[in-house]
Amino acid sequence: MSRIAVFTGGYGNVVFLKHPNGLTTVYGHLKTLNDTLGRYLHEQQYARKTFEIDLRPAPGQFTVKQGDIIAASGNTGGSGGPHLHFEVRDARDNLINPLLYNFSELGDDVPPYFERIALKTMTAESRINGEYQRVTYAPVRRSDGSYTLTQPVSASGLIGLEVLGYDKANGSPYRNGINCMEVRLDGREVFAYNMNSFPNEQTRLLNIHENYEVEQTTGQRYHRGYIADGNTLQLYSATNSAYRGRLPLLDKQPHEVTITLFDAYDHAARLTFTILPDGVPVPPPPADTLTNDPNAEPIDSSEVGLPAPGVSPPLVQPSGPPVATITTDENVLKLTVRNVSTSNPPTAQLMTGRSSVSQAVSYVQGDKAVYLIDLRKTMPDSILFGRQVVRTNFRKRILPGRPETLTTGNARLSFSPKTLFDTLHLAVRSLPEGGIEINQSTIPLNDFLSVQYQSGYSPGTVDTMRTKMYWVSGGRPSFLGGTWQNSRIDFLTRNLGRFKLLTDNTPPSVQITGATPNGITAKIRDDLSGIADFRALVNGEWVLMQYDYKRALLWSDKLDPAEPFEEGAEILIQVKDRAGNIGQAETTVHVPRPPVRKTVTRKRRRK
Description:
- The chain is mainly beta.
- Helix content is 4%, strand content 43%.
- The protein has 3 helices and 49 strands.
- The strands form 10 sheets. Strands 9, 10, 11, 14, 15, 16, 18, 19, 20, 21 and 22 form an 11-stranded mixed beta sheet that branches. A 7-stranded antiparallel beta sheet has the order 5-1-2-3-7-8-17, covered by helices on one side. Strands 31-34-35-41-37-38 form a 6-stranded antiparallel beta sheet, with no helix packed on it.
- 28% of the residues are buried.
């Protein structure tokens, strides 16, 4: 046994078992350990007076053999339900697909399946169905088990393919990941990945293996069918290396695309469809080739009734003043202006300092004019459109792999060589309600960004112990902390987005729900900064409390389970939040009285 640990989140209770052949197996979310390991863990927790602990036993200190029971599975840590988290790692700490070991307990003759696919424009010159956009499609399963698309597809330029698909196993309702994916263009493989092994220290790179923006906004994990810029994982093959798996639809000819999903047992699901040149409509497949299987994935009704690709919409006259919005998509800035004349859309002026560059409309769709700006060529700080000025808040182009420090407004940002996956077109603005916004939260970071923020507070006017920095782009503020230097706070973040100073003056709530000789239970909560630490004392002696943050529950775990707490013993539970506030509750141990049974008197029935 090489490692025994307890974490509030993540693995929860976990053990690492090192095998003679160099492999390590990991068992997480455990409920309890066997007597020997459990006693050792308890003794160490009591010796160090801590719930969370990470132990590395000496080689040979705890040995086990096949058939020994080492633990019981559970629901501890960041588990979404009772199960065993099981890993196999090699000597270099690469994660190995456990299904490769052919466990007899696991059966799988079910192929993977497609839920959705997406096509995405990758350059300012690319189009899908006439627009610069990301479009999703719901594949339909044919009667022979293959998949097709029933929606028309036309595209041109460099196109990125993304897949939302899953695998299933016999007798299980749960969805599993895709072990292998292959993409062919006109019969030639252009991209493939294989997940038989994965480097554990590079798990953050999964954020760019998948479409991170879509995952953050919808929770759906689309696998990219191309190698994103900055992705250094050695899982891929891309024969069109210049395009890194992107589909080069550059010759105005139709192209056949085939996507194949494989599980660990080589069961496959295959989707084939044709992409016509942008501007050419494609008819749907004959209805008699489609399955009537009620379990087949539905057609995306939101896309039914769209005009045929390449058919120009009628000219639209503006019905109000122009309304402009901007969005950034990797290297492209998209300016969309509504309520303009589609017959004569105006030219936009890209302003960088005092210089100006004219930008003609890229295309017109309905009542909107769309301007696509390649940020690799120009990075405007504002865009002039008629009498309107749209601020982009761009400050500088930050390259990965090198240190960079920039002062802008009331913030100083320091990037390490590992902070970025890819080039960042840095945009910074002060928030009207206070705080700062750094790009969008949908752009992933590889490592920490260091920020020095000038708060504007005069020294001595702010409670620096309880006022800290929070990331506020999510549903609930996330505590980042920070260190104050006069009116400046220095903090680290692994997320981009919005940041704001918040003050937490409210201590955690502590409610003791049980205190008997057999055990102590309590409910604990904190409204803002989050729980940092807790302790329980019985007659002044430290007692281990197990903690399940999902249920906000503490319960005692005595060093000697057979030794009851003394009746009348004084109990003190203290909980500290990350802002330093301390909440506590006190009571005494009492012996519960047996319930009093009421005597039921039967009424005599009258004759």
